[in-house]
Write a structure and sequence with these properties.
Layout lengths: L12 H7 L3 H27 L3 H17 L3 H15 L7 H29 L1
Helix pairs in contact: 2-3, 2-5, 3-4, 4-5
Length: about 120
């Protein structure tokens, strides 16, 4: 199956609703997500690898609201599990695997959002 044609892991309905037709707001919001998310996920990778559960918890908590803003409910749900696992001191042996699955899904969404941002910029 071609991943380009698969259903996205995000829903921009909420963002479109609060943007209320303001394309510049949409573009800025997407751009901010595209810039901040890879940085947060890079730091999450490091904190999980080093078993720094306090940092993992804080970063997972921080990124959840961004995921919700972009309608990434499934990914947000897994991130909540990661957050809870980190808060419990990393006792969830599946935590690194969960993070890897989230990281892959988010990477795909970032690619798709980059294309959407380009389309919106062409409309302005």
């Amino acid at each position: 199956m071609n991943t380009q044609q698969s259903e996205p892991d995000f829903d921009l309905s909420f963002l479109e609703e609060i943007a209320d037709g303001n394309k510049e707001f949409m573009i800025e919001s997407i751009d901010m997500f595209l810039v901040q998310t890879p940085e947060i996920f890079g730091n999450l990778s490091k904190s999980i690898a080093s078993k720094d559960w306090n940092t993992t918890y804080a970063l997972a908590h921080k990124v959840k609201s961004n995921l919700g803003f972009f309608g990434m409910d499934r990914i947000k749900g897994v991130m909540q599990e990661i957050e809870a696992g980190a808060k419990a001191g990393g006792t969830d042996a599946e935590l690194p695997l969960k993070f890897e699955s989230v990281k892959k899904a988010v990477a795909k969404s970032l690619e798709q959002l980059t294309e959407i941002k380009k389309q919106k910029e062409a409309e302005v």
